Amino acid sequence: MPLPKRQHSKQRGRKRRTHWKIRVPGFSVCSQCKKPILPHRVCPFCGAYKGQQIVEVAVKADKKKKKG
């Protein structure tokens, strides 16, 4: 297996790595509660998708009553 004859400089390695970036996901706005959500997913706050109620979301007060 071939090996490099000389060590690559730090600048050369860093030039190659300039495109190794983490992309920030694009957010969209929920049509019912107007909170930012990831696109093509059910809203975790209200349970709506494309203006229709898909999932019934429990409110925090209801969750506390069920636990206690």
Summary keywords:
two-stranded antiparallel ribbon, alpha+beta, 68 residues, 4 strands, 2 helices
Describe the structure.
- The chain is an alpha+beta fold.
- It has a domain at 28-68.
- Helices cover 22% and strands 12% of the residues.
- The protein contains 2 helices and 4 strands.
- The chain has helices at 10-16, 60-67, and strands at 28-29, 36-37, 48-49, 52-53.
- The strands form 2 sheets. The chain has a two-stranded antiparallel sheet with strand order 1-2. A two-stranded antiparallel sheet has the order 3-4.
- A hairpin with a 2-residue loop joins β3 and β4 (52-53).
- The longest helix has 8 residues, at 60-67.
- It is elongated and about 70 Å long.
- The relative contact order is 0.11.
- The mean pLDDT is 89.
Short description:
The protein has about 70 residues and is α+β, with helices and mostly antiparallel strands.
Mind summarizing the main beta sheet? 2 strands, antiparallel
Instruction: List segments where confidence is low: pLDDT < 50 over at least 5 consecutive residues.
Output: none
Reading side by side through the largest sheet, how are the strands ordered? 1-2
Kindly state the number of beta strands: 4
Binned, the helix content reads 10-25%
Order of helices and strands: HEEEEH
Sum up the overall morphology in one term: elongated
- Helical run tally: 2
Q: What's the end-to-end separation, in Å? A: 66 Å
Instruction: Provide mean pLDDT, rounded.
Output: 89
Strand content bin:
5-15%
Return the structural class: alpha+beta
Chain oligomer state: single chain
Rg over alpha carbons = 24 Å
